[in-house]
């Protein structure tokens, strides 16, 4: 019983403790109630009933505690209510005062509020204005740069416009890129670049077309300046040879100055009107700004290679057009001059582009272009010069080639092949001269009377001697009037040979050859004149049927004097070239053999004609075949023959001593009558 009683006591204690924990959990507002209530119903049967009993007991316990607490604080509560009722009247009074004060404050603050709102609104406007000014300060440079860009485009300052675009893109637009107008600007810039690119290319095409049309003017100016420079150098060389040399120094303000003996500067004034003109360059005659502008634009746009290729391709096409000659170019010197002017103008422009730009054209490119052009020029000149049969035209062509070569050589182009070509042209020039002098010689021979030259006075004698080197002591001692042994053709032939030498010398001028080479050229061309042209004319003259024995004798006399004059021709050439005849490899004149051959031909012709004449006398004789015996007198035909031979041999007495004896005469075998046998 005791143990059971003890167990019940322990159970009650545990149950009391458990419900105490449950009530503590229920009274706690932080713990969830679901778990606690579930434990009440799940622990033991009838737990709900016992829980309700315990809950009621606990409520009653709390009610008693609340009642005790209220009883303890009731008097204080009553006292507080009493005090509060006392304060109520003061509070209502204070409330009235506060309300009145508030009303007066509201009335007084209404104006302040209005002013404050105005101040706030002004402050907002001021802040907005400051913000606007700040943003405008950022936008104004952009707008100014864009306006500047438009002005540059209108004034065609495209390179500056591209620089402005670059600044807009990299500096100005990024600062205000949030604005729509800047976005529109940024979208327009690529289009403007393409427009600039197209416009500059169009300007370049116009420039190329213009330069193609005006190349001849540029070339004409350059060749004229080269010719003036060559003339000036010739004058300087002449002054140097005379001991009055003035050394050219430099060109100042496009006028040539020179040092005088006192060290001062003097202007070169040769009296030529062209020398007073301002010296023009390619840049003065041609506006190269489209090329520079287009080059800079394409460089800025990063497309320089395209521009270079296009420019070089177009210029090569123009070079081919320039090098194409006109079909009738060989007819006049003006045709050659226009041809050379265009070529010089083309390469003067290219040389200027080479030195004025960096890399647009290179020295290798211009050398390649020049070599191509030089081959074409040489082929064209070979073809067209072969059509020329006028020596004056060939000489003018040579002078043009020399000026052409000197002009381009002054710009750094190699021209040795052109001077080599001039040797070919020289051979052709000599051929045309030989043809021309062949006509001159024929005309002289046709107009000659083949009789000694009569001189009536000393003046006439001196005139003849001045034209031909004739010296004979016996004739000089004779009184006037008197006769010179040669005919009128001899001084004329001698004069024409000298004229030929002068004409041949004209071609040798300005060829940049030594005196020895010029001397050799003159002697060779003179030999051709003597051995081929004059010799052929003499041979043809001797063979003409109307030339009789008297004319043949005079021809022999003439050739003898011309042969003797050959040494004077050599001295004449020596005086021109200042090359001594004793110089090694100096060519000698072949006049001796030429005139000897002509004399031998004349002698043979005399022999032939004399035999023919004798045959004619004998064959035409009237023979008396029935004569019984001779009457002691010669036949009439025989007397005529003897008289003819006497007069003919009288003519032979005028032959020079050096002339070889005539060959033995052949008499016809026709039978003779009478006592006069063969």
TrEMBL record:
Highest taxon of the lineage: Eukaryota
Location of the Exocyst complex component EXOC6/Sec15 N-terminal domain: 54-223
Biological process, per Gene Ontology: Golgi to plasma membrane transport; intracellular protein transport; vesicle tethering involved in exocytosis
Keyword line: Exocytosis, Transport
One GO term describing the cellular component: membrane
Pfam families for the chain: EXOC6_Sec15_N (PF20651), Sec15_C (PF04091)
InterPro entries: EXOC6/Sec15, EXOC6/Sec15_C, EXOC6/Sec15_C_dom1, EXOC6_Sec15_N, EXOC6PINT-1/Sec15/Tip20_C_dom2
Limits of the Exocyst complex subunit EXOC6/Sec15 C-terminal domain: 418-661
Function summary: Component of the exocyst complex involved in the docking of exocytic vesicles with fusion sites on the plasma membrane.
PANTHER family: EXOCYST COMPLEX COMPONENT 6, SEC15
Family of this protein: Belongs to the SEC15 family.
Protein name per the record: Exocyst complex component
Lineage: Eukaryota, Metazoa, Chordata, Craniata, Vertebrata
């Amino acid at each position: 019983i005791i143990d059971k009683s003890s167990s019940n006591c322990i159970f009650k204690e545990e149950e009391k403790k458990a419900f105490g924990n449950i009530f503590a959990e229920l009274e706690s507002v932080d713990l969830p109630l679901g778990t606690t209530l579930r434990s009440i119903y799940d622990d033991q049967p009838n737990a709900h009933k016992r829980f309700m009993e315990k809950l009621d007991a606990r409520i009653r316990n709390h009610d008693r505690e609340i009642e005790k607490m209220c009883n303890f604080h009731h008097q204080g509560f009553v006292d507080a209510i009493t005090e509060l009722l006392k304060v109520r009247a003061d509070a209502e009074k204070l409330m009235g005062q506060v309300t009145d004060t508030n009303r007066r404050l509201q009335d007084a603050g209404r104006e302040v509020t209005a002013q404050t709102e105005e101040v706030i609104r002004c402050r907002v406007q001021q802040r907005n204005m400051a913000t606007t000014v700040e943003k405008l300060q950022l936008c104004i440079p952009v707008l100014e740069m864009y306006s500047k860009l438009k002005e540059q485009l209108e004034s065609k300052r495209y390179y500056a416009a591209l620089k402005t675009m670059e600044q807009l893109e990299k500096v100005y637009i990024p600062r205000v890129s949030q604005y729509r107008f800047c976005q529109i600007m940024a979208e327009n810039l690529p289009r403007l670049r393409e427009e600039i690119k197209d416009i500059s290319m169009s300007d370049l095409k116009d420039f190329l077309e213009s330069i193609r049309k005006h190349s001849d003017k540029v070339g004409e100016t350059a060749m004229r300046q080269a010719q003036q420079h060559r003339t000036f150098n010739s004058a300087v060389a002449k002054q140097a040879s005379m001991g009055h040399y003035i050394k050219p120094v430099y060109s100042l303000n496009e006028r040539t100055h020179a040092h005088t003996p006192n060290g001062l500067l003097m202007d070169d004034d040769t009296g030529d009107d062209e020398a007073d003109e301002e010296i023009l360059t390619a840049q003065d005659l041609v506006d190269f700004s489209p090329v520079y502008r287009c080059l800079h634009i394409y460089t800025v746009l990063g497309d320089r290679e395209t521009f270079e290729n296009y420019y070089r391709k177009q210029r090569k096409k123009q070079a081919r057009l320039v090098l194409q000659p006109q079909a009738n170019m060989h007819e006049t010197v003006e045709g050659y001059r226009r041809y050379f002017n265009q070529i010089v103008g083309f390469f003067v422009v290219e040389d200027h582009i080479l030195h004025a730009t960096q890399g647009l054209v290179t020295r290798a490119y211009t050398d390649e272009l020049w070599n191509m052009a030089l081959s074409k020029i040489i082929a064209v000149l070979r073809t067209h010069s072969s059509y020329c049969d006028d020596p004056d035209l060939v000489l003018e062509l040579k002078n043009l080639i020399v000026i052409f070569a000197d002009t381009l050589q002054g710009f750094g182009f190699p021209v040795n092949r052109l001077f080599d070509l001039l040797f070919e042209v020289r051979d052709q020039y000599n051929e045309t001269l030989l043809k021309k002098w062949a006509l001159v010689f024929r005309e002289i021979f046709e107009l000659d009377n083949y009789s000694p030259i009569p001189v009536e006075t000393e003046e006439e004698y001196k005139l003849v001697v001045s034209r031909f080197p004739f010296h004979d002591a016996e004739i000089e001692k004779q009184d006037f009037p008197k006769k010179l042994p040669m005919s009128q053709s001899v001084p004329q032939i001698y004069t024409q040979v000298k004229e030929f030498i002068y004409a041949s010398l004209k071609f040798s001028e300005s060829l940049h050859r030594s005196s020895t080479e010029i001397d050799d050229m003159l002697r060779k061309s003179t030999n051709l004149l003597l051995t081929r042209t004059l010799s052929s004319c003499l041979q043809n003259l001797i063979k003409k049927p109307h030339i009789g024995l008297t004319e043949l004798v005079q021809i022999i006399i003439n050739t003898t004097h011309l042969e003797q004059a050959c040494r004077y021709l050599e001295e004449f050439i020596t005086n021109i070239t200042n090359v001594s005849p004793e110089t090694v490899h100096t060519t000698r004149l072949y006049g001796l053999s030429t005139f000897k051959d002509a004399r031998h031909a004349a002698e043979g012709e005399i022999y032939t004609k004399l035999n023919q004449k004798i045959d004619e006398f004998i064959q035409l004789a009237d023979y008396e075949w029935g004569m019984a015996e001779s009457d002691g007198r010669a036949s009439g035909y025989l007397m005529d023959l003897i008289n003819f031979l006497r007069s003919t041999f009288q003519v032979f007495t005028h032959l020079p001593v050096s002339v070889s004896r005539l060959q033995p005469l052949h008499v016809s075998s026709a039978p003779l009558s009478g006592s006069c046998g063969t």
